């Protein structure tokens, strides 16, 4: 991964640059200013097998797991 960002209501709660994760590794990101029950938007950029950057986004609500989807170019 190149970058991880966590936002809530257009406010960035966490941002990590150049974080690499091994297969099956996890990462815990502390959120300092989370407010209310508004959903969190987690964005990250992955590097594919060919070295290309692939952006993903997931919306998390009610403390439930979510699935990341590729962000398609406009």
From TrEMBL:
Residues 3-54 form the Pili assembly chaperone C-terminal domain. It comes from the Bacteria. InterPro entries: Ig-like_fold, Pili_assmbl_chap_C_dom_sf, Pili_assmbl_chaperone_C. Pfam families: PapD_C (PF02753). This is Pili assembly chaperone. The lineage of its organism: Bacteria, Pseudomonadati, Pseudomonadota, Gammaproteobacteria, Pseudomonadales.
């Amino acid at each position: 991964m190149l970058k991880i960002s966590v936002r809530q209501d257009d406010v960035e709660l966490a941002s990590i640059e150049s974080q690499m994760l091994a297969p099956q590794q996890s990462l815990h990101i502390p959120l300092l200013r989370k407010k209310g029950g508004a959903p969190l938007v987690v964005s990250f950029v992955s590097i594919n097998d060919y070295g290309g950057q692939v952006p993903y986004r997931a919306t998390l609500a009610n403390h439930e797991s979510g699935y990341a989807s590729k962000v398609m170019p406009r």
